[in-house]
């Protein structure tokens, strides 16, 4: 009995160490993993067409999650409505966001531009929130919106004049932005809390069910199985789909929601730097200034003062 307080103290100390580790190293690791997903995915697209590549990624993710679920035995959705919500969010995120992002990269968009466009999601959510979820939007958020849009437009223009053939990738990226924004609004208005393992499993399954038939119908499904492709898939399945999401949830449970949200402001420049090292993509100096304006706009629009 005398050992019980000591055991409790040891558990408390261990919990404090884990929390300290999360707050110190977790944000940096998450930022690197998430931002690297853009250039690494584009690297993998050299060896497979976009929907085929995405279908393989989803299939591998489903396999890993099924194995984890058999071991962890998480709770499954208990109602048809909960299943429907997961399917809808899965379609918006996995099919629209990832599908159109991969198509955009295949069509030639720079990963830094894609990362910047989809990072405008918090602003777009804020603009549409009054209509869909009844939230008011103030002058500060409007100012952030205008800065974000101006910065995004500046990055695109700085890379050169847009022609008809270069407008398509940008429109696909905007479609990906609409997909992730729709998922956020839908989740906020109608979503229900579910176990992360089961929700991810359902959503990746939805992505596979939609993308695989389209790949078979519209793409040549030949895959060049090289060590680079295998490493790319391993990273996207383990680094992006499992480790990054697990870190995100762990940091949220540690009470660092605002810190995690602020990390997304740094995804576009981090993706641009990593794209330079991985792909040799170079941004003009004016594009860096415009990107800074866009990141500032997102930060202003989504910043919440402490109470």
TrEMBL record:
Keywords: Membrane, Transmembrane, Transmembrane helix
Domain EamA: 30-156, 170-302
Signal peptide: none
Annotated localization: Membrane
UniProt keyword Ribonucleoprotein present: no
Transmembrane among keywords: yes
Bilayer topology term: Multi-pass membrane protein
Family matches, as InterPro entries: AA-Vitamin_Transporters, EamA_dom, EmrE-like
Protein name listed in UniProt: Multidrug DMT transporter permease
Transmembrane segments: 21-41, 47-71, 83-103, 109-130, 142-160, 166-186, 198-218, 230-251, 263-280, 286-304
Lineage: Bacteria, Pseudomonadati, Pseudomonadota, Betaproteobacteria, Burkholderiales
GO annotation, cellular component aspect: membrane
Family designation: Belongs to the EamA transporter family.
